Automatic annotation (TrEMBL), chain A:
It comes from Paenibacillus anaericanus. It comes from the Bacteria. The chain crosses the membrane at residues 12-32, 44-64, 85-104, 116-136, 148-166, 178-205, 231-252, 296-319, 331-349, 458-481. This is ABC transporter permease. Its main location: membrane. The lineage of its organism: Bacteria, Bacillati, Bacillota, Bacilli, Bacillales. GO terms for cellular component: plasma membrane.
């Protein structure tokens, strides 16, 4: 009985996860704070390590305390929960894992809105923190100060929204005046903070439902998804990258990333150039920030196109069956027989290397997999009674397909597409690395890496950081995809 | 003894012809096999058709049909049927509140009556035929009666050999499956060749101008186009290329003046070796890891393994390669940075890099496949029977879980052959992948086409072998095949 309590406690599992990950991060920081070749300690990194270690130790004892509370009383004591406020301070070190676990701990009754509000606030803070690094640069863009000012105001508003959500959203009941907050939140999503948009929409729906406890299916999906730490952290990183891509239009100087600066060639990381500079004196940090935009756009578009085309082909083929099915699937078999990357190379060889051709090349190769997934789902859904009922009522085929069958077979498609955006990001950067992808002058992660690989021996950071960015983005999409799969259909796991 | 010797021969003779005629009748009902059967056995089918037309004239069926029709018409059955149908229709419209014109309803009723009447006639006629112990003459029946004469079988054997082979294949489910799979692969290979050729043909680039340079005269360009057959029409070029692919002669490459197929044959072994070693490594690591994760679900090991697998899926192979070179070659000097066929140590890093993605996905697949199987009823039965946990796992769970995993491995193999292009570039291996990448900068159309098509063909053939072996080893698939 008590054991199961421990397992079902969200707070305990999150606190445990936070301290393990935080420990791993501290160890990485400790290792990188020591320069083995010069036998010297890097002071800044060591400082960061000390901060991380401090919070990790606190988190460890907090986790033990939560465990003891649950084992003794079956519930977490108020004093333990208030310790979470201390851990909230770890936001200063940027330790996302401990912060989210602390936010989770301090509130007893949690709902999806509270979690979304927390992530909205965190996204804003992270965007401001990363943008603020530009302060150390020799110069900033003209729009830097006003846009930073508005970002700070928006984030303060998000903080107020978090407090209001914590107080006035109880279960299914939402105070009516929150409708204004919701509208404002949707407006602030112009910064690319999609969490704000999601939170606003969620609030609006709840207000409209008027405290009706009957929940729609997607609400329970939200509930499951927001409880999944790794999925939320994946989503956080994706939205953070999206938001910083949007904000970088105003807060970052594009010239820093593209114009040659022969006074600052191949500098090692410093405050002015947090990740160093490349062989043309361009700031690697700015390049990676601007590269996020290309990677996200190419990854998402080259997944969306095959999802739509493959989805339609698969739905038609699964619904009509027989000859239609045979013809469509045999043609897709041909496409399927060529490995995606080789097909992409052939298309790019024929039409030249640029971003549009890259998107087309990646899309074409991915069509068959989506068509197969969709076809299998449609075959399954077509056998359900409600489809027979619709047919008996004399609905047209197109109405049956698009109103009844497609919406009910979308779940595996959503999961699959989320999981393959990551693969598309990898393919994009791989092709760019081979010189077959995005044009070389555009800062794109694969392009940056290609340049960095020639300086592997002397300036390895040029190859390491863009690679880490790629891994983080792909990992986030994979985490989100796994989380979505668990939330949408546990059977798929 | 004497009797026993004679009987099998006699029965087998009639047994054979009965088998043939049965399969023949079945195949005629199959929409896709029907045409092949009629086409391949054209001489014999013509003879059968002749007999059929001749016998039909004397057949009693049609006279019987006319007789029945007249009988039924005289008895007033049709008029009664029409009145009934009309009434039903009117009631139906009344019930659903539909308003239809009288004329329209009557027309509909008439149409329905006609169909019902025809059905009735057929039914009565067939009953009469059965009463007289006769059968309606049809095409396959004619064939059956002919094939029962041994002399017909012997005479028709040579001209109808193709048809008899087809009938033989059709009568054996497993052979039929293998045959269908092979035909499909041939179709896919042809399709891939046409597809890749068409993509490269549509290219807006002018290879002659690219290779000869800006200064080339029109004459030189025309000459170049003539040598490589680029001045011919699309269909002529397509035909030449298809012929070239199946005869392993794709002509000379645009740049370097080398035979495309010999170059590919020289570069292919190293790519294949690399892929196969990575594949074996991936299976050796991934399957045990997946099984451990599934049996100790939600434990520390499960989380750790699956987290590592997720990272393995998320790592771009070229970056992994660079980091390996940085750490193991540049910093630690353990392994050589570039591939060298003489040094076996140099193949370690490329295989690990190439196999990482596959290892990760197979481990995840094994875990989910095992989890699915572990919850099946037969596992509970096996446990209830008193088998040890180990026996249940090895004999019941893994054997069933491994099937989807092998399919995934077969499919991923293609991805690996394609993905080897990146790994080969990182480690400077002169395999097929890096060959295609190098050639695309020119762009050297025949080389790219050859490389891509032969890779696709290899993948298709491997997938066929896996499918066929599968059907051979998995009894469930075989029973399913027999039900067709």
């Amino acid at each position: 009985m008590i054991k199961t309590n421990l397992k079902t406690s969200q707070e305990y599992s999150k606190a445990f996860f936070a301290w393990v990950v935080s420990l791993a991060l501290s160890v990485i920081l400790l290792l990188s704070s020591y320069d083995f070749s010069a036998n010297a300690v890097k002071p800044y990194v060591f400082l960061a390590f000390s901060a991380y270690a401090l919070f990790t130790i606190t988190q460890f004892f907090l986790t033990l305390k939560i465990r003891r509370d649950i084992l003794r009383h079956g519930d977490i004591a108020r004093s333990t929960r208030s310790l979470g406020y201390v851990q909230l301070l770890s936001i200063l070190t940027g330790n996302l894992f401990i912060v989210t676990s602390a936010f989770h701990l301090v509130k007893r009754q949690k709902n999806p809105e509270y979690t979304l509000a927390v992530y909205t606030l965190l996204t804003g803070i992270f965007v401001i923190a990363v943008s603020a690094l530009n302060l150390f640069k020799p110069y900033v863009s003209d729009t830097f100060l006003p846009s930073m000012f508005s970002l700070v105001i928006i984030t303060i508003f998000h903080f107020i929204a978090l407090l209001l959500v914590a107080k006035y959203v109880q279960g299914n009941k939402v105070a009516p005046f929150m409708i204004w907050i919701a509208c404002l939140l949707i407006l602030t999503s112009i910064t690319g903070n999609i969490f704000a948009l999601l939170l606003g929409l969620n609030l609006l729906f709840k207000i409209r439902n008027n405290g009706n406890p009957a929940t729609a299916k997607w609400e329970s999906i939200w509930e499951k998804l927001t409880q999944n730490t790794t999925a939320m952290i994946g989503l956080f990183f994706i939205i953070f990258l999206f938001s910083i891509s949007v904000c970088s239009l105003l807060t970052f100087d594009y010239a820093m990333a593209t114009e040659n600066n022969y006074g600052a060639i191949l500098l090692h990381p410093s405050l002015a150039y947090p990740l160093g500079t490349d062989n043309f004196g361009r700031c690697l940090f700015s390049r990676i920030v601007f590269g996020a935009r290309t990677s996200l756009i190419v990854g998402i578009v080259s997944t969306a196109i095959p999802v739509v085309i493959g989805g339609i082909l698969g739905a038609v083929s699964g619904y009509y069956g027989r000859h239609t099915d045979n013809i469509i699937m045999r043609f897709l078999d041909i496409l399927y027989a060529v490995p995606g990357i080789l097909l992409a190379i052939a298309i790019i060889a024929a039409f030249g290397a640029n971003t549009v051709n890259l998107i087309v090349a990646l899309s074409v190769g991915a069509i068959p997999t989506y068509a197969r997934t969709m076809r299998a789902n449609v075959l399954l859904v077509s056998t359900f009674e409600y489809v027979d009922a619709a047919r008996a009522f004399g609905s047209r085929d197109s109405a049956i397909i698009f109103k009844h069958i497609v919406p009910n077979s979308l779940a595996p498609m959503i999961v699959k597409s989320t999981l393959t955006i990551g693969a598309a990001v990898i393919s994009t950067s791989s092709l760019s690395f081979l010189g077959l992808g995005v044009e070389p002058h555009i800062p794109e992660w694969g392009n940056i890496l290609k340049l960095g690989s020639t300086y592997l021996e002397t300036h390895s950071y040029m190859a390491i950081y863009p690679g880490l960015a790629i891994i983080a983005l792909v990992l986030s999409f994979n985490f989100l995809g796994d989380g979505l799969r668990d939330a949408l259909d546990p059977k798929l796991g | 003894m004497e009797v026993a010797k004679v009987t099998p021969a006699q029965t087998s003779g009639s047994h054979l012809s009965r088998n043939i005629s049965n399969t023949y009748a079945k195949m005629l009902l199959n929409p896709s096999y029907k045409y092949f059967l009629l086409l391949l056995g054209a001489p014999i089918n013509l003879v059968v058709l002749f007999f059929y037309l001749y016998r039909r004239k004397k057949d009693t069926y049609y006279s019987l049909l006319d007789e029945t029709r007249n009988e039924l018409l005289e008895s007033g059955y049709k008029d009664k049927l029409e009145v009934e149908t009309l009434e039903q229709l009117q009631r139906k419209h009344q019930f659903f509140g539909q308003i239809r014109s009288q004329e329209k309803t009557e027309r509909q009723a008439k149409k329905m009556t006609e169909a019902m009447f025809q059905e009735k006639i057929d039914e009565v006629t067939n009953r009469k035929l059965q009463l007289n112990q006769q059968r309606r003459l049809n095409f396959s029946g004619t064939f059956e009666s002919l094939i029962n004469h041994p002399s017909f079988l012997i005479i028709s054997f040579i001209p109808g050999i193709l048809m008899y082979i087809l009938i033989f294949l059709y009568s054996r489910p497993y052979l039929k499956y293998v045959f269908e799979r092979l035909v499909m692969t041939l179709f896919v290979i042809l399709g891939v060749s046409v597809l890749v050729f068409t993509i490269l043909h549509l290219s807006p680039m002018n290879p002659a101008a690219n290779i000869l340079g800006q200064t080339a005269t029109d004459e030189q360009i025309a000459n170049f186009n003539k040598i490589y057959g680029l001045d011919q029409s699309y269909l002529a070029q397509l035909w030449n290329n298809l012929k070239g692919i199946f005869t392993f002669d794709l002509g000379k490459s645009f740049a370097g003046n080398e035979e495309v197929t010999t170059t590919i044959a020289r570069k292919f072994p190293i790519t294949l070796t690399l892929t196969v070693i990575s594949l074996i490594m991936a299976m050796l690591i991934a399957i045990p890891v997946g099984i451990i994760s599934a049996t100790k679900r939600n434990s520390f090991w499960d989380y750790t393994f699956m987290f590592i697998a997720l990272i393995g899926l998320s790592i771009p192979s070229f970056w992994q390669g660079l980091i390996f070179i940085l750490n193991f070659s540049i910093k630690l000097h353990w392994l050589p940075a570039t591939f060298n066929p003489q040094n076996w140590l140099s193949i370690i890093m490329p295989t690990i890099v190439l196999g990482t993605g596959l290892t990760a996905s197979v481990a995840r697949m094994t875990r989910s496949s095992m989890l699915e199987v572990i919850n099946e009823d037969y596992i509970i039965t096996a446990t209830a029977k008193g088998l040890s946990k180990r026996q249940v796992l090895l004999k019941h769970a893994i054997r069933n879980a491994i099937i989807p995993i092998i399919t995934v491995i077969g499919l991923q193999f293609g991805g690996m052959l394609g993905g080897s292009a990146v790994t080969e570039k990182v480690f400077n291996i002169s395999g097929l992948g890096s060959y295609i990448v190098d050639k695309q900068f020119i762009p050297d159309i025949p080389s790219i086409m050859g490389g891509v098509i032969y890779t696709a063909i290899t993948i298709s053939i491997i997938n066929v072998i896996i499918d066929v072996l599968y059907a051979f080893f998995d009894p469930r698939i075989r029973t399913k095949m027999k039900q067709y």
